[in-house]
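Hey, I'm writing a tutorial for new members on how sequence and structure tokens pair up, and I'd like a real worked example in the thread rather than a made-up one. If someone can provide the structure for the chain below, I'll link this post from the tutorial.
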Amino acid sequence: MKITGCAVRAIAVNFEGVMPATHVTLQLQTDAGLEGIAYVSRVGPRNLRAMVLVIEALVESLKGADPTAVEAVHAKIFGNNLGAPVSGLERRAASAIDVACWDLKGKAAGLPVHKLMGGFRDRMPISANWRLMPGPPKDVVARHLEDVLARGFRAVKAPCGLSPLDVAIDHVRFIRECVGPDVKIIVDGNFQWGLRNALHFARETEECELYWIEDPVAWHDYAAMHEFTGSVRQRTCAGEVFQYEHEFSRLLEERCSDYAMIDQDLGLTGFLKVAHMAGTHGVPVVNHLAPETLCHPLAAVPNGLIVGLVPWGQPLFTEPMRVEDGELVLPTGPGLGLEFDADVLEKCAV
């Protein structure tokens, strides 16, 4: 099987009318008639056209290559002729191709990607990661929590770092009051608090029994993360903005976080490398965004902890992710087990 070309589009969708987002989709074409798919997010309006062009250029450089040789493809598109790794926008573009190659590898083998990668489990705990920022009236928050629990979720995530500290603390206490003692609550500090305020937040929310506190300080402040992790009762999580394996290596070696959060920017190949690295340190891993694709490496390794569902990409696909009793049921179809909704790609193209 050889790569022959691609179709790349910018698509604007809105999950249930409450979560708008614009994504860039990739359909990677081959001479075998199989097509690998992927999408990337967090692409601002100024960079949409650039992202499309970079993906197209990278695919052009891969024409004739075997997409199932994922390590060879990864090595080519995540580096350049000078030996220096790519970064930023180009790395995100490369990640889409890596994901699509894994999709093709699974389709060629007739197996789900998570089975190809290791097949440790076929169900994963999952959290509902939307509409829980402080701000809305409490009755609105309560109704949203009632809704996600009715959908089968047993974990929720609240991004609180952009709110005043006292508001964030009150918000988390209210969530615990609404969901009771058995639902996991994740809090994201959004890199905003600094060490002193982060410690204050942790002390004031101890009785809430948080599942973890994520990114309480600046992403590059390894020393503060190390001190915070060693000082609080709650578990901590970091890594979502890292694009390189060596950044995770330092995070793990210096014991800066209890859990490692990995983004699709590393591709599925890079995600798997970091997950195995974290496993040698006894550190569980979680995904940052792209749950439809990153659930596969998470389910493949023993130290995959939970899938975080930010559902803004869900309208792109013909079927939603399947949640039962607090768990994601992994796809059983070949590849990623995903299919783009052709009508959505047509009607919602930017």
